[in-house]
Amino acid sequence: DIEAPTAIGAMAPDISMVTPDGKVVKLSSLKGKYVMIDFWASWCGPCRRENPNNKLIYEKYKSKGFEIYAVSLDKDAASWKQAITADGLPWIHVSDLKYWQSAAAQLYRVYSIPATVILDKKGKIIAKNLRGQELDDFLTKTIQ
User: Fold this and answer.
1) What is the pTM of this model?
2) How many CB atoms lie within 10 A of CB 35?
């Protein structure tokens, strides 16, 4: 099964990438929180349209131990940073600026965006590609 390393129930493979200000943030550093890995890019219209929903979700659940780890498939640092600022996205942002050759996108077999992967507090994959109301309902049931 080509999905096996990132199948629901598997432990999430670690990602180690750089933030817009040059700090390395590992996905594994967020253990103990529920995490949504959000694969997106500044040039992706559907991703940008999803950001207001993600902001509502983040505001609703961050105090309950929820974090977003946003992996950008941008290749231009200025466009990436400008989109984060323009859309007012307060969560963790990382990228290797390698477009579809992004190490994280390849590791997670992401072939279209937006794509999301939800992890439990231990780093296990518990859901994929939820957004909007479906994501909200899932988190309401999952995060106590």
Assistant:
1) 0.95
2) 23
Q: Which CATH class is domain 4-142?
A: alpha beta
DSSP, res 14? P
3-class DSSP state of 124: strand
Please state, in angstroms and as integers, the Cα–Cα distance from residue 4 to each residue in 11, 58, 80, 116, 128, following that order.
10, 28, 30, 16, 13
List the one residue out of 127, 114, 66 whose CA is nearest residue 91.
66
- What are the start-end ranges of the H helices in 8-71? 45-61
Cβ atoms of 23 and 16 closer than 8 Å? no
What does DSSP say about strands 34-40 and 24-26: parallel, antiparallel, or unpaired? unpaired
Q: What is the pLDDT of residues 19-76, one digit of tens each?
A: 999 999 999 999 999 999 999 999 999 999 999 999 999 999 999 999 999 999 999 9
